[in-house]
Amino acid sequence: MYAHCVKGSFMVKAGDKVKKGQPLALLVNSGNSDAPHLHFEIGHLLQYYE
Asked: What is the pTM of this model?
C-alpha cells in the first residue's frame, strides 16, 4: 500500500517495470505531518508489515 498520494495521480500500475528515480505518483501532505511524505507498506490478509 502506498499512503498519502494524490487521488488519481498514479503514473504506474501493477506489473509495470520501473526505473530508479522514476515518479510513481504525486504526494500530498495529509495526516499529522508538516511535509508531504510517502508510506510504503506490505501486508497480507489485513496484517501489515513496515
From this structure: 0.58
